[in-house]
């Protein structure tokens, strides 16, 4: 079942969204489906900025980065074929490369969603 961060308000400082993915399994090769959206205004639909499908090798880490400069908010949706050895954490950085602690979302803090948001 897909999981979502839900809409996260950007405090105006975040310019980069970082997704840190870890596969701690010694044997599983999970496939990951990922969608990233930005929110540009109240009452406007979410704008997709990434839709990816990729695998994560056993005992590997992957770092994905996306620009969210100027966005009022963002949302990440992800699903994987793996079990409990897979973790995806979300962080943001300002234009100087400083992490913004208030906008981080750990994988355990994401919530199930019935389906991915359709991307046109």
Helix and strand arrangement:
Layout: E1 3-4, E2 8-9, E3 14-23, E4 31-39, E5 47-55, E6 60-67, E7 73-80, E8 86-94, E9 111-112
Antiparallel strand pairs: 1-7, 1-9, 2-7, 3-6, 3-8, 4-5, 4-7
Task: Summarize the structure in words.
This protein is an all-beta fold. The protein has a single domain, classed as Jelly Rolls. It contains no helices and nine strands. It has strands spanning 3-4, 8-9, 14-23, 31-39, 47-55, 60-67, 73-80, 86-94, 111-112. Strand 4 and strand 5 form a beta hairpin. It is globular, with a radius of gyration of 14 Å.
**In percent terms, what proportion of residues is strand?**
over 45%
Overall tally of domains: 1
Biggest sheet details: 6 strands, antiparallel
- Shape descriptor: globular
Q: What's the count of strands?
A: 9
Mean pLDDT over the full residue set: 91
Features:
six-stranded antiparallel beta sheet, single chain, 9 strands, mainly beta, Jelly Rolls, 120 residues, three-stranded antiparallel beta sheet
Short structural description:
This protein is an all-beta fold and 120 residues long. It contains no helices and 9 strands. The chain has a single domain, classed as Jelly Rolls (Sandwich).
């Amino acid at each position: 079942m897909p999981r979502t961060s839900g809409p996260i308000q950007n405090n105006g400082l975040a310019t980069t969204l970082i997704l840190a993915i870890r596969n701690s399994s010694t044997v599983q090769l999970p496939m990951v489906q990922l969608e990233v959206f930005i929110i540009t205004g109240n009452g406007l639909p979410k704008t997709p900025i990434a839709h990816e499908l990729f695998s994560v090798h056993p005992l590997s880490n992957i770092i994905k980065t996306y620009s969210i400069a100027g966005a009022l908010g963002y949302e990440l949706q992800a699903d994987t074929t793996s079990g409990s050895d897979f973790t995806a954490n979300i962080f943001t950085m300002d234009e100087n490369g400083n992490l913004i602690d208030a906008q981080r979302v750990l994988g355990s803090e994401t919530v199930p969603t019935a389906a991915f948001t359709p991307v046109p």
